[in-house]
Amino acid sequence: MKKYIAISMFCCSIAFSSMLNAQEIQPKFKYNNIKHAFTLGYNIGATAPFSLPNTIREIKSYAPLFTPSFGYQATYDLSSKWLMGVGFRVDVKGMKVTDSVQYFHTIISVDNGNGELGSFEGDFTGTNATISRNVYLTLPIFAGYRQGEWDFKFGMYFAYLLSAEFKGTVSEGYIRKGNSLGEKVLIERADFDFSREVRSFDLGAHVGVSRHFGKRWEADLTGQLGFNPVFPSSFRGVGYNLHNMYLTLGVAYQIW
Fold first, then answer.
1. Which position has the higher pLDDT, 178 or 174?
2. Partner of 92 at 20 to 30 A CA spacing, among 67, 203, 204, 234?
3. Can you spell out the DSSP letters for 21-37?
4. Burial class (CB in 10 A: 0-12, 13-18, 19+), 2
5. Nearest to residue 205, comparing CAs of 161, 150, 159, 160?
6. In angstroms, how far is CA 243 from the centroid of its own chain?
7. Cα–Cα distance measured from residue 101 to residue 116, given in angstroms and rounded to the nearest whole number
8. pLDDT over 70 for what percent of the chain?
């Protein structure tokens, strides 16, 4: 993760240095160069590993949830070409996915025989269905380059978790206690809920492109790639690191 953060900060420093060294940068701060806008969008993507591990054998289905994004954005025109900006957004990031897994390490809830639920950790083989829906307060900070009606933006985002949902079921398979060599237990259906384990903070790359329509409207396509794993390294319920990887399709309306 430190490598990705270092690369992003290096690229940001190059972008800001280029802006500051450009001859057309305005030498004095001007309030008229600040633009304020409301933003509204829809997040599409996944909370997933950067590459599929060999424990996931097949993706049977994927569906986005209702995952809106809305907030406020301020940009400052440093020149006719360069700009910088910051925003505050409420982002809902989520998905529903069903896959076929083999020796997928997890922790499930099982009936311990007296009507109470207990936890069982091991390597599961069968069908896994997961619903992830996390709500973040997001702070994007970016530099931008304007070419005609187009703005190209690159920066980073910092996000604080407002609410979390990460749960699902395993079914039609078996789990081996502890690891892949452990005792085999048949599973018709069992639940898991890791909502309380989701990390409170996220940060990553923020890259976007905008197209202006008239003086007040613009259409946006923004990508956010989370560097922080969604779960802390000490958590053993998922056998690999998951990251937030989402595209936001949206619009912005300049209020002044």
1. 174
2. 234
3. H-TTS-SS--GGGEEEE
4. exposed
5. 159
6. 6
7. 27
8. 86
